[in-house]
Amino acid sequence: MSNSDKKKQDVARAAIEYVEYDDIVGVGTGSTVDYFIEYLKPLKNKISGAVASSISTQKKLEANGIRVLDLNDVSDIPIYIDGADEVNANLQLIKGGGGALTREKIIASASKFFVCIVDESKVVDVLGKFPLPIEVLPMARSFVAREIIKKSGMPVWREDFTSDNGNIILDINHMSITEPIKLEKELNQIPGVVTVGLFAERPADKVLVSSDTEVVELKIK
Ligand code: 5RP
User: Fold this and answer.
1) Which atom of ligand 1 is nearest to the CA of 31?
2) Neighbours of 27 (CB within 10 A)
3) Mutate which of 38, 85, 124 to test ligand 1's pocket (most atoms within 8 Å of Cβ)?
4) Which of 21, 123, 150, 157 has CA 20 to 30 A from 136's CA?
């Protein structure tokens, strides 16, 4: 196993501490979460079920015998576990590297407590080095791209990718995101934008960070 995989595995294992008996667990998407699903498997008869943030996660949960619940049938999600592409010291995130940002944001918003699991390479001072994913209705692609250029962003169409919701992704390069909440609101206002991969208005409640030697909680600034 590579060093990077070991860090993902370590932080995924640490997140299991936050799952309690009878919980409905929101489950994110990505390679770090894949390890979390492995650790969730032995608890499958102790939890009430899981709400998946993507079709891929749903399939992995089912393959591990974990009961998958529809968000529409669930009134309370006590805990959501998900990875991120970048994290700052306010626990604000860039997500969507795997293209699952819309369902991830819905479940994060519907959950009482969001534990984000990352390795140390994801922690940054200023968000934006990782291209910011935006999910967009296909017919609005060029319009939204032009609007983003007006805001000094460099949108790149993630070609050959369709989201679980049938939409496209624009990845915005060269953004130094000094005011994440303001930018999230502004981008959300562009007609055709479905979801912005900035999780600033609803940040994580806790971020666990793994290094070669330990898993620690990220200190809030
Ligand atoms: C998917 C995501 C993932 O959480 C993010 O891309 C991190 O993935 P990984 O754990 O594979 O590094 O937002 O849409």
Assistant:
1) 11
2) 25
3) 85
4) 123
